[in-house]
Amino acid sequence: MKLYLWQRLKPFLGWFVVLELLILCGKIYQSFDGFDFAPWEMAKVLGVLLLTSVIAFMYMMIPYVLYMLFLPARKQNGRLDRIVTTSVFSVFIYATLFQGTATQIFWDEFQAAFNFIAVDYLVYTTEVINNIYESYPVNALLLALFAATVVIVKLTYRHLFTEIPAPGFVRKLFSFAVYAAVLTVSYFAVDMSRLEICKNYYNNEAAKEGTYSLFSAFLKNELDYDRFYPIQNPEMNLEILKNKLGGKNVKFLEPGKNIRRQITSDKPEMKANVVIVLMESMSAKYMNENLPEGYMPITPNLEKLSKEGLFFSKAYANGTRSVRGIEALTLAVPPLPGMSIVRRPNNENLYNIGTIFKNKGYDNKWIYGGYGYFDNMNYFFGHNGFQVVDRAVWDEGEVTFANAWGAADDDTYRKIIKEADKSYAAGRPFFTVTLSISNHRPYTYPEGRIPLEPEKWGRIGGVMYADYAIGEFVKEAKTKPWFDNTVFVFVADHTAGASGKEEINLEGYHIPLIFYAPKIIKAQRIDTPVSQIDVLPTLLGLLNFDYESRFYGQDALSADYESRFFVSNYQKIGYVKNGTDVILKPVRQHSVEGPKISDEALAKQMSEAIAFYQQADNWVENLKE
Predict the structure, then answer these.
(1) Alpha-carbon torsion 491, 276, 521, 250, what sign?
(2) In 10 A of CB 175, how many CB atoms?
């Protein structure tokens, strides 16, 4: 049976390995400058790719192996056998080619193997499929894959069958049991996180076979911190956090139990309106000061706002997804491994930024130009103190241009102004959170707004249009009676790309952060590194609010502020101080990147990192109202 099984599976496996090697070549071509081509490093890439390919292959072939188990010996190579085998081989080849093409598209966008982002995208098929159709020649690609499948089947047909007689059923059953045992052992013994054995990020990601990494991500979309990451005594964690989060005007309410504390201000509270604009994929590298010398300015409006407002030039995002940005802005928690809290179950009635504003009499609104069921955004905001105003409830005619993701940014900003007018007319202060859309593939936008055509400029055009829409938004807001009493917060959800040679490329998390309110906030530039989770407490500090805090962020303007920030890359979570990044990883592992520090300083930073993340993992207990 072993020889028989090998002969029947050999053509399948041969083509599978060849195609996986071609997919690897495609990844290398797309990110050539990022790879480490040292012989030993590339050998590790090929070794991991071969291992994950064989495991994925064995799982994919289970139906065909079962077919051979029950195929009578007298039917071997018969008409039915030829039809079934040829059909299975054709589907297998087409599926492998399709997976390879999808892998290349995903790599082009994220410079990563399939991960939980890909799993999430399988849930939201409407937006994702429309986005792909608007970004790529899908029909031509599918036709090309079909043609390639026909050629491969014709070349391989005579090798799909063997003259070796099939063994008896008992021997076949024993061989199948061995096959199943190998798969079972591989399921428990081979973990994706343990396969990241290269020093280089690109090498690690490229080594992961697409189907294997997709199912691994599906099974490990959320990781329990206490089971997989470095831990320490919870009482020690709380003591560390008390020292980190304490300070003047801070009183812990239940010391030794949690981080709940009362924040008070020495100044009178301001009942200013607030509009938070979470800017899709707006990397700090697009700000004029960070562009290459001689490059055309693409964010003139943000540049102007940065000089007229409170500008944090070194702000860093929590993660690589919009839901990470939403989580940071509303809950001010470090990025836990796996899914954002925005997408986790049991995330209703949490103590969040909306709770504070609602208790102070504000109209809380989540305004979104797309359909907010995507990424669970509507559910999260709707069950945490916000009125949901997504595209589904917009009036007819309010959308003048849309793509796969939703209405153009200037349509969204006009809607925000319209809703602000309603609150102002009712005599109520308003608190609005929005997420822009246009700076996202397929990077389409209304004609005539900027001099760049979408079809030719891609992301650069998307950035310039997004900046244009912000400029028009502020210009229109200035004509309103509520403008002088309104604080605008412009902050990116994440950057346009976080990959790099390092395990976690810190520049891939560098985002702009601007607080803009000419009549309220003095223009100032701050170059101290700050975290995305500091936006919430800094905003409340600017308004001189007295409030209860259950947050891990701090007011970046307070005298007690200590610069540090948090970053995450799927299963890896980092804690950064003075450029040194302590990275916590599954199976109780950790690594360090950046400037070398003393053993004592490293141990202290490691302990602080564990304290923040381990305690934050108790988010349900900490945040549930």
Answers:
(1) negative
(2) 18
d(Cα 5, Cα 460) in Å, to the nearest integer?
53
296 pLDDT above the threshold of 60 = yes
The answer to whether residues 324 and 570 touch, using CB atoms and an 8 Å cutoff, is: no
In angstroms, rounded to a whole number, what is the distance separating the alpha carbons of residues 581 and 503? 10
What is the C-alpha separation between 339 and 328, in angstroms, rounded? 13
Look-up of token digits 């040292």: 38
Q: Is residue 532 within 8 Å of residue 323, measured between CB atoms? A: no
Contact 48, 197 (CB under 8 A): yes
User: Do residues 411 and 449 lie in contact, with contact meaning Cβ atoms separated by under 8 Å?
Assistant: no
Q: Partners of 430 in the beta sheet? A: 363
SS3 track for 67-108: HHHHCCHHHCCCHHHHHHHHHHHHHHHHHHHHHHHHHHHHHH
CA neighbor of 611 nearest in space, from 340, 225, 351, 221:
225
User: Is residue 506 a contact partner of residue 316, using CB atoms and an 8 Å limit?
Assistant: yes
The whole-number pLDDT of residue 590 equals 92
Cα-Cα-Cα-Cα dihedral sign, residues 473, 476, 482, 485: positive
pLDDT digits (tens, 9 = 90+) for 410-419: 999 999 999 9
Q: Is 523 helix (H, G, I), strand (E, B) or coil?
A: coil
Question: What are the structure tokens assigned to 62, written together?
Answer: 């289970």
Kindly indicate the confidence band of residue 128, based on its pLDDT and cuts at 50, 70 and 90.
low
Do the beta carbons of residue 340 and residue 116 sit within 8 Å? no
Two tokens, residue 152:
């491969």
Task: Report the C-alpha gap between 335 and 569 in whole angstroms.
Answer: 9
Distance CA 7, CA 161 (A): 8
Sign of the CA dihedral running 299, 301, 304, 308? negative
Buried b (16+ CB within 10 A) or exposed e, 335-347: bbbbbbbbbbeeb
CA nearest to 317, candidates 347, 351, 279: 279
Pseudo-torsion of CA 529, 532, 535, 538, nearest 10°? -40
* 33, 34, 199, 203, 504 from 37: Cα distances, Å: 10, 9, 11, 9, 19
pTM summary value = 0.78
Instruction: Quickly tell me which residue has 């005579």 as its tokens.
Output: 158
**C-alpha to C-alpha distance for 163 and 582, rounded to whole angstroms:** 59
Q: What does the block give as tokens for 35?
A: 């790879």
**Coil, strand, or helix at residue 49?**
helix
- Give residue-wise pLDDT tens across range 421-457: 999 999 999 999 999 999 888 888 888 888 887 767 8
Number of residues assigned to the chain: 625
424: which strand partners?
none
Q: 224 pairs with which residues across the strands?
A: none
Q: Are 452 and 512 in contact (CB under 8 A)?
A: no
How far apart CA 334 and CA 566 sit, in angstroms, is 6
472 sits in which H/E element: helix 454-477
d(CA 30, CA 215): 24
440, 448 Cβ separation under 8 angstroms: no
Cis (ω within 30 of 0) for the bond into 442?
yes
